Amino acid sequence: MNRIVIGLVVAGLVTLFNSYPALAQLMPSIKTAGNKRMSGQIKAPEEALTLSRFNKDGKVHILAVLEDNGISVKGVDLSDELRSYEQNSFNLIGNMNFNEVLGLIRRGSRKVTVKYSELLPALTSDRHLAIGINYEEHGKETGQVRPFMFPKLVRTDAAVQQLEYQEGWLLDHEVELGIVFPTNVCAVEELDRMMIGFLVVNDFTDRAELMRKMDSQNVTGGKGFPDAKSKKGFLPTGPYMVIPKNWRAFVKELQLELSVNGAVRQHGNAKDMVWNIDRIVEKSLAARGEKKSYYQEKMVKLFEGECIPANSIIVTGTPSGVVFKAPAKGFIIGTVMRYIFTGAFFTEQMHPYILKKYLHKERKNPRYLKPGDFVESSISYLGTISTTVTAHTAKLGCR
């Protein structure tokens, strides 16, 4: 009998360590960084077009930002200049090249000032493609070792945002670089012939739902990720979308940073992505038409059609420093022992049992976001998202 029990323990541990291959490297990897707000750092329009959206007289206007003081932005109203009012920036300038837009900005005589609180999301869309584990250190802290893809199905929110907390969430933060295309992308070779938009986003996640729904033996299959990341308010965008003249050089300059209540938690560089933009597009197109992820108990496609859609965000992954960490070796060993010696293996499978116990443990982690927390998510030249987590307010019905 003892040999049987020992054999079960050893087999269980081997299986678990195969499922979490990076467990041996789970050392804290957050880098020190100054908590300098990145608002106000914008490129000259000769280097990059910085475009914001705002409402005026019942229409969406596109503003070419020339100044940003962290409270408001000032620039040229391109919609008025063109006498055209489109929902998204690329729809307005889609038939123009970079230098034509630049000339329009330089000829603009009247300047408009818009407060941050009045800015709309950098673009409006509700279906996006997300990349998980696209920074090596983030892979180590979460126990996974290779990138994967899943859809994020939620409408964008503005840069100044209140996120209403729901009871039972384990709310985690992920500052990420978002990229946007002006037209459908059907081949990697098209990237060097088009303008590409960049913006800062926060890929908020409910880790409780993720742990309940994920397949711990096939994490990169994406199950649970769309559900855990597609709740209302879980995709705020930066105050503007930036279109660099030389996007390949631009990406190398981008530093990502996130702070909670003034303390820096995440810091990284876009040049350190495991899959660069070309690779992301290549991998995405290779999966076209396939149903690769679960959402609301159904298999769904990464995106509709044969090409990556215009005006949807590719959320490219987050650096290390999120709240969630993969279960430590000691926790796994102790939980496997309880699983076997309490006879839980008669009624439950081992991996779901481990996740259930770890979810219970994580509910005691004070680093998860809660009402009253203030989150700033920044990327150099792309501005800052300011999120205040608020308490849930019950909606009163009519009597």
Features:
399 residues, alpha+beta, Fumarylacetoacetate hydrolase, domain 2, 25% helix, globular
Structural write-up:
The chain is built from eleven helices and 19 strands. It is of the alpha+beta class. It has two domains: 2-35 and 123-390, Fumarylacetoacetase-like, C-terminal domain (Fumarylacetoacetate hydrolase, domain 2, Alpha-Beta Complex), CATH 3.90.850.10; 48-118, no CATH class.
Furnish the topology, listing elements before pairings.
Elements: H1 2-19, E1 48-56, E2 59-68, E3 72-77, H2 78-82, H3 89-93, H4 98-107, E4 112-115, E5 128-132, H5 136-142, E6 148-152, E7 160-164, E8 171-172, E9 175-180, E10 197-202, E11 205-206, H6 207-213, H7 225-229, E12 241-244, H8 247-251, E13 255-260, E14 263-269, H9 277-286, E15 291-295, E16 298-301, E17 314-315, H10 329-341, H11 350-362, E18 374-379, E19 383-390
Parallel strand pairs: 5-17, 7-19
Antiparallel strand pairs: 1-2, 1-12, 2-3, 3-4, 5-6, 8-11, 9-10, 9-17, 13-14, 13-18, 15-16, 18-19
Helix pairs in contact: 1-10, 10-11
